[in-house]
Write a structure and sequence with these properties.
single chain; alpha/beta
Amino acid sequence: MNQVRINTEGIIFDLDGTLIDSMSAWENIGSDFLRKHGIVPPDDLNETIKIMSFAESARYFIEVYGIAMTEEQVGDEINGMIRDNYATHIELKPFVREVLNQYFNQGIKMGILTATHKSLTELILERFGLLNHFDFILTSGMTGLPKSQPEIYHRAVSQLQIPAQQITIFEDALYCIRAARATGCQLVGVYDEASKNDWNEIQKLSDLSIMSFKELL
């Protein structure tokens, strides 16, 4: 396994699939939500909604499937369905804790940019004693932007108050790496089983790529 050295003053981390092993928990949440409301989901539902923000997914369920709820109610219900996983079951990816401790002790400024609700993000980071490692948490819900849009990455970069050339972004999803490329930050592609079919393209678009956080120790 190669050892990767990153020279950076600030880091923006994705959460799901990058720091935590949670993608399987999200894989069928849309289908489970529709079934809960008596609707048979299509086979390609996950592919359709995976690049959407929470608000966009909620709007999609309301407009396409006639769910008689507000966007906020849909989001709250889905968060409630998955909350127990964040509170008790989902784990950090191997060596993530050690790497975050290392960067924190080095004085590197760190933030989280995620499509996951802020309350769930805080819940799992607090559970592992890592919440205080981060200068900010920015979510799609807070900005009204999906992670497929470069603008949300520009906003995260501005939170660190460091030149983009001195910031590194860690992501596991191809569509996120494409959007993040517009910032001019260094990009690190992180392997995750949920994105394994895109791994070759992720490696091409990233400045660096890792199979495991152990490579950063």
